[in-house]
């Protein structure tokens, strides 16, 4: 319930309040500088943001409330109808959340049919991603499914924003560990790695400790101490305090996780300090529980270090210095989020510029999402952005509009270039002079160009 309150309710409340506070100004016509050409300075240039029509979102199951509400909030505020395709794994909760949305629309005297929910098996999902009545599509999910969605959407040539998860790394610089110690950073790492049992696209999967190896070992010790005290279970009907609940996926997913861990254990150098296996809960034997797992000394190129785990597994690496730390962090096909911990902000900014990822938090974990910045990744984590100003405007037709600043000055076609052309030579002299007057670096040539314009205008 704690994880849901933070990962579902808090971020949704933040999105609603942020859009209510800033959305109108974001969607106001945007004034632009206009042409650099001094002869065209009588023109105003603006971008108008108008609804696209009907926007769709195919969303994942890991945050069924927020992933449904986010596209609806942005879509409706920007003036669009919205169609949500939820995962078949969360149909019941999605239908309940949608009834809340429709109730809110009704109270506001807005047609509740403005938003619609679709739930179907994956084999039938082309009816959504390839629907010609959609004007935009957001996809949140896995890479294999994304390829199918984008391929179908290409048939109707609609824009698609694709968010495909990540392999987020946290780089902890030596200066930070020396000044701040391990306790505070350990708490941040555990929250980032094990919230929602690790089923979080911007969850922490890799931790890279730079510099002093003693700090690396101290952090591992502290993490192990805290993980060993975790309680697994369900706080819905269980009296004891629960740190981590069950996962949505079990079976084949657990086979995959255990297989990756067995592979690196067989190499001999890796330390599996906690967990590493599925867990049969005595009160909930049918629940999909996996032990919170801590792994150290991994080969950065191993399968578990390269693939998105999307489960309660935290891998910790040692790097001799910050440069090697960045090298390990960037050694991934994914590029969604990441974090850098340092007491030197100048260094933090420099490292951020070299971090090949779409979002970075400095001295924090994933707060770029709460800050309502545009959210999206690079490389294998997808393309395009939702959230923030860019996400809201991305659900609009960005219409470019120019008009005269005054009714007394407007564009007219000079006689020398009016059809039919009477003298090609004079017309060429005119347009050449126009370009010189507008763009030449020499003031003398500009003045000369204006003179020739006036001389050859008729």
Written account of the structure:
The termini are far apart. Helices cover 40% and strands 18% of the residues. The chain has helices at 2-26, 66-77, 91-107, 126-129, 143-156, 174-180, 183-194, 213-227, 252-265, 303-306, 322-330, 345-354, 367-370, 388-393, 424-439, 443-456; strands at residues 30-32, 43-51, 54-58, 81-86, 115-119, 136-140, 160-163, 169-172, 206-210, 271-274, 278-279, 289-290, 293-296, 313-319, 338-341, 361-362, 382-383, 396-404. The protein has three domains: 2-164 and 395-401, Aldehyde Dehydrogenase, Chain A, domain 1 (3-Layer(aba) Sandwich), CATH 3.40.605; 169-375, Aldehyde Dehydrogenase, Chain A, domain 2 (3-Layer(aba) Sandwich), CATH 3.40.309.10; 412-456, no CATH class. It is an alpha/beta fold. A seven-stranded mixed β-sheet has the order 10-13-14-9-8-15-16, sandwiched between helices. It is built from 16 helices and 18 strands. The radius of gyration is 28 Å and the shape is globular. The model has no long low-confidence stretch (mean pLDDT 94). Strand 4, helix 3 (91-107) and strand 5 form a beta-alpha-beta unit.
Q: What descriptors fit this protein?
A:
458 residues; Aldehyde Dehydrogenase, Chain A, domain 1; Aldehyde Dehydrogenase, Chain A, domain 2; 6-stranded mixed sheet
């Amino acid at each position: 319930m704690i994880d849901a309150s933070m990962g579902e309710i808090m971020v949704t409340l933040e999105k609603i309040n942020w859009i209510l506070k800033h959305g109108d100004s974001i969607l106001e016509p945007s004034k632009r500088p206009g042409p650099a050409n001094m002869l065209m300075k009588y023109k105003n240039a603006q971008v108008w943001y108008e609804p696209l029509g009907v926007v769709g979102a195919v969303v994942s199951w890991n945050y069924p409330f927020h992933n449904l509400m986010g596209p609806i909030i942005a879509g409706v505020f920007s003036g669009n109808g919205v169609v949500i395709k939820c995962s078949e794994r969360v149909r019941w909760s999605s239908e309940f959340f949608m009834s809340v949305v429709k109730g809110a629309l009704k109270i506001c005297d807005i047609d509740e049919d403005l938003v619609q929910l679709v739930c179907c098996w994956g084999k039938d999902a082309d009816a959504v991603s390839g629907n010609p009545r959609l004007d935009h599509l957001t996809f949140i999910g896995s890479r294999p499914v994304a390829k199918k969605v984008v391929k179908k959407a290409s048939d109707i040539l609609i824009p698609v924003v694709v968010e495909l998860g990540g392999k987020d790394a946290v780089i902890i610089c030596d200066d930070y560990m020396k000044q701040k110690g391990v306790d505070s950073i350990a708490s941040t790492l555990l929250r980032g790695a094990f919230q929602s049992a690790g089923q979080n696209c911007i969850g922490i999967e890799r931790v890279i400790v730079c510099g002093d190896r003693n700090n690396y070992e101290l952090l591992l010790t502290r993490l192990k101490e805290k993980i060993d005290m975790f309680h697994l279970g369900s706080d819905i009907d269980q009296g004891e305090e629960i740190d981590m609940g069950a996962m949505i996926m079990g079976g084949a997913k657990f086979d995959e996780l255990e297989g990756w861990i067995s592979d690196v254990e067989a190499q001999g150098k890796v330390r599996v300090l906690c967990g590493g296996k599925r867990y049969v809960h005595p009160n909930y034997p049918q629940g999909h529980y996996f032990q919170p797992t801590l792994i150290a000394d991994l080969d950065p190129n191993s399968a578990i270090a390269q693939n998105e785990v999307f489960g309660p597994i935290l891998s910790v690496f040692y790097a001799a210095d910050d440069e090697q730390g960045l090298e390990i962090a960037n050694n991934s096909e994914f590029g969604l989020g990441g974090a850098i911990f340092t007491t030197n902000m100048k260094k933090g900014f420099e490292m951020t510029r070299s971090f090949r990822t779409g979002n970075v938090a400095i001295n924090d974990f994933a707060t770029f999402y709460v800050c309502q910045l545009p959210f999206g990744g690079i490389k294998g984590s997808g393309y395009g952005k939702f959230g923030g100003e860019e996400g809201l405007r991305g659900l609009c037709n960005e219409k470019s509009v120019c008009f005269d600043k005054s009714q007394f000055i407007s564009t007219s076609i000079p006689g020398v270039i009016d059809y039919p052309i009477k003298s090609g030579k004079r017309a060429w002299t005119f347009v050449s002079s126009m370009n010189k007057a507008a763009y030449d670096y020499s003031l003398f040539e500009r003045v000369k160009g204006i003179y020739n314009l006036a001389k050859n205008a008729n």
